[in-house]
## 1
Amino acid sequence: MGWKSSYFQPFFMEKHMCLAVPAKIESLDGQMACCRVGQSETFVNASTMLLEREPVIGDYVIVHAGFALRILDLQEAEESLRYFLEIGLGGPESA
């Protein structure tokens, strides 16, 4: 009995999508950043070791699997957050 006929088959057959939500760096401790996800009250810790430059508090980053992958410019981050608000994914205030 392979994985194709197992309990997990429906999960793998569904279409999934990952949304890259800008996360704002609220604090830094060495190469770890505490980031606010979008405009919510959700925070994640992310390693900054893959970034092209040293981040500063207030930078927006894209986080995946515990790593900050890219620093966004402010205009790009604000535009993305505005789109998320428009479709109702902007945090508690949009619910």
Note: Residues 60 and 73 are 7 Å apart (CA to CA).
## 2
Amino acid sequence: MLITPSQDVGCETASVREDPFYAGLPRRRARGKDYDALVVETIAALRRRWGASLLVHFEDFASRNSYRLLARYREEVGFQTATQTRKPK
């Protein structure tokens, strides 16, 4: 099973957060440990639900997060990027 989770981690632009039509979380973007904790919690929940059949598609992560997260989860869950697909050993 391929899962493409979408996570709303907030928005830095106050005018966007205050717009009544803004559908995202009306708070500043999660960063650092808070951001990492959200990803850890999400991956853990997905693994509990789908187990070893889980394949997570990482897309549109900021560069500072994407390589670090892919390196962390490379051996734990399957992952897919635009250039390669790999399942855990």
Note: Residues 13 and 54 are 34 Å apart (CA to CA).
